[in-house]
Amino acid sequence: MSRNIAIANAAALVKQIEQYHQKTGAYPKTVAELTKKIPPSGIIGVFTYFYDKTPNAYTVTFTQNVLFNFNFEVVQYDPTDSHQTTGESTNLNSTGKKHWKYYIYD
């Protein structure tokens, strides 16, 4: 449930990024180029969203603790659906939301 709320709250950030792209023809190199600050996740334990420019688009990522700081759920938005994992796990899971996937990092 917390994942879905954080995804819904990230919609404002994704919208800003896409508006920037429509206006300039490119994605911002950093979120500092956007007119508004990164919105809060609204979820305890999800401290911020992370933005990364990729060669063809961008990703928006957040993490949340799964098990006593041992495992973390990494949730990522990628409009090109070219999601990547880090760590030992290579299993990407569907969130049920378009362009959003998650994996467990341990």
Describe the structure.
- It comes from Adhaeribacter swui.
- This is Type II secretion system protein GspG C-terminal domain-containing protein.
- With 106 residues, the protein is α+β, with helices and mostly antiparallel strands.
- It has one domain (1-105).
- It has helices at residues 2-9, 11-24, and strands at residues 50-53, 58-67, 71-77, 93-94, 100-105.
- It has a 5-stranded antiparallel sheet, with helices on one face.
- A hairpin with a 5-residue loop joins strand 4 (93-94) and strand 5.
- The protein is globular, with a radius of gyration of 14 Å.
Please provide the count of β strands.
5
Number of helices: 2
Spans where pLDDT lies below 50 across 5 or more residues: none
Q: How far apart are the first and last residues' alpha carbons, in Å? A: 21 Å
Order of helices and strands: HHEEEEE
* Overall shape: globular
Structural class: alpha+beta
Main sheet attributes: strand count, strand direction, barrel closure: 5 strands, antiparallel
Report the helical percentage.
10-25%
% residues in beta strands:
25-35%
Strand order of the largest sheet: 1-2-3-5-4
Query: Could you say how many structural domains there are in total?
Result: 1
Topology overview:
Elements: H1 2-9, H2 11-24, E1 50-53, E2 58-67, E3 71-77, E4 93-94, E5 100-105
Antiparallel strand pairs: 1-2, 2-3, 3-5, 4-5
Task: Quickly describe the structure.
The chain is an alpha+beta fold. Helix content is 21%, strand content 27%.
